[in-house]
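We keep the chain:
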Amino acid sequence: MFEGKGRPLTDDGLTRARRALGVDLATLWAVMTVETRGCGFLPSRRPVILFERHIFHRITDGRFDARAPDLSNPRAGGYGAGGDAQHERLARAMALDRRAALESTSWGLGQVMGFNARDAGYRSVETMVRAMTLGENSQLKAMIGFIHSNGLAAMLKRRHWKEFARLYNGADYQRNKYDERLALAHARYAAGPLPGLSVRAAQMYLTFLGYSPGAVDGWFGTNTQRAVQQFQQAQGLAVTGRLDAATLAALARAARST
């Protein structure tokens, strides 16, 4: 359920987002990194999500509190394991109330809540969720739509991290130090270099194919090089450990065919 193409972020998608917000690339990368640790998809090609039990409680007026307290609860938290386990929780909640479950979940690169679908530019949460499964460009577009609808672009331009975090992440932003993490990530990216989109795409493809390149972060480190070598050997390519054009094209083909 919700498994999609898992298309990686492209230069076109990144450029459109940057121009739409009027911010530098360092700011855009900072928000994406802090919100989802840099990648909008799981190895299963499902969107990265987080199911919020207190939101589900609120939307359903607590109808399922007694029946499923781990899914419907007035108190935030109780998330359990991340990754595909969140999709399992979502599936259980959908069996109780599909729309409320989708609206109680944050989606993709920007972790946009389902109940904010209209703010993100979609007619309904179902429409937004379908877009979230297509690729990271669509996920980023939803994030940009939400930022614009809530007047947050100006805060990003001025790098008012506390105000941005308070309105984007909620009143508890300080508990997770979102403002500090945003400032730190921006400083890192402003100093350069920025993540490489080709490296990042290769890391996603390698992950989908069952290799272990490490984090999808756009940095070509030891783990990524080792995974590239393993892929090259499996495909009968010259085992150079370099991400040349032929290797990247082979990765894209292999990922599309699985």
User: Anything to note?
Assistant: The chain has a mean pLDDT of 95. Residues 136-149 form the longest helix (14 residues). The two ends are 16 Å apart (CA to CA).
